[in-house]
Amino acid sequence: MKRIIITLSVLLLVFSLSACGGSKELAKTDTGDIPEWYLTTPTATDYIFEAASATSRDMDLAITKASTEARAKIARTMEVKINSMQKKFEEEVGEGENSEYLSQFTQATKTIVSTELSGSQITQKKLVKDGSNWRAYVLAKYPIGAAQQAFLNKISNNNNLYTRFRSTEAFAELENDVYKYENPDQTQAPATITAAAVTTAAVADVTSNEDATPTTTDPKNQIVNLNDFSFELISCKMENRTVTCSLVIKNNSENDLTLRVGINGTKIFNESGSEFTANTIKLANSSSQKGWTRIEKQIVPGVPTPAEFLFEHVSSKTDAISLFSIFILDGSHEVKFREVAIDKIN
Q: Which of 12, 278, 305, 309 has its CB 3.0 to 4.6 Å from that of 245, i.e. a possible disulfide?
């Protein structure tokens, strides 16, 4: 019996030493085999880079494990960046009185970090033999603008949070970063435009934060110019508590341009100050669907493009629109029409 115990003890000791030997051999990877981008991770203002390594007896599994770890590192880095934005939001709106907003903000952050990193790319990869295993080194990158864009889309789904966040400096910074991501040739987003209504007799480009004063009370055929686009308001009609505002949009440049309109940010206000968010936006033959936060349309130069903005459940006592604001995503601009009469259809 003693011999059996001694034999088992010796075998256990041998296996233990063998395992330790394997660990030591695993760590014997020559420094020259380690890629430079792993030792010194690249940095960029518009991308997050993360490097990782993993081992496995199976080559593909080693690559998969390393790739998963690199993406997990990107998620953690992105969470830190968005949390920094949330801190700015808290400082501006006040933590105590807006706990509901902050809770919604936090939930949006978690959703983006957990679901929006599928767009990350493995840009570098290296395999080396490490003892009896394969060691994989990978370098992953993810565009910061893509995460910010996804985050902006997420909070846009919550109208109350979007309205409150939109008034903060943190939102302005986020919009500017998203604009630069969507327009890589632009080094800086244009200043926010809050264009006012002007008449067909006097078409004006409004490029400041102050609204131009209309020179007439005629509510129809108001035109607003914004960069290379012109927006002409044709009419606003109400039928069964649904207000439909019809416009004609023109591209005044020589190139095809894409117009991006934010649905949740497009609103009308009646004479009592009640606010109504757009339910459906139609640009030519393209129509937004339920749950969308934006609609895009390519606008051809010189071709008038019809557009309709539908607002449902508007108070039947509404006789005029004090403010009709169209939210343009590129550059966070607002095209504004004021004192618009409503034609009621019985």
A: 309
Q: What confidence score (pLDDT) does residue 302 get?
A: 85
What single DSSP character describes residue 301? Answer: B
Q: What is the CATH number of domain 31-156?
A: 3.10.129
Interatomic CA distance for residues 304 and 302, integer angstroms? 6
Task: Tell me which of 3.60.20.10, 1.10.230.10, 3.40.50.300, 2.60.40.10 is the CATH number of domain 190-344.
Answer: 2.60.40.10
Mean pLDDT within 290-309? 90
For residue 215 the two structure tokens come to 């020179």
Residue 314 DSSP class: -
| CA atoms lying within 13 Å on the CB side of residue 192 | 17
Helix (H, G, I), strand (E, B) or coil at 127: strand
Residue with tokens 């033999």: 129
Report the alpha-carbon distance of residue 300 to residue 47 in Å, rounded: 33
pLDDT in tens, 200-246: 333 333 333 333 333 333 444 789 998 889 999 999 999 999 999 99
Contact by Cβ (8 Å): 221, 255 = no
Q: How far apart are CA 114 and CA 147, in angstroms?
A: 11
**Structure confidence by residue, pLDDT tens digits, 36-87:** 999 999 988 778 899 999 999 999 999 999 998 988 888 888 777 777 766 7
Q: Half-sphere exposure of 24 toward its Cβ, with a 13 Å CA cutoff?
A: 6
Cβ burial of 159 (10 Å; 0-12, 13-18, 19+) is middle
Spatial distance between the Cα atoms of 141 and 89, rounded to a whole number of angstroms: 27
pLDDT of 197 > 50? The answer is no
Ranges assigned E (strand) in 29-143: 47-56, 121-130, 133-143
Q: How far apart are CA 82 and CA 109, in angstroms?
A: 7
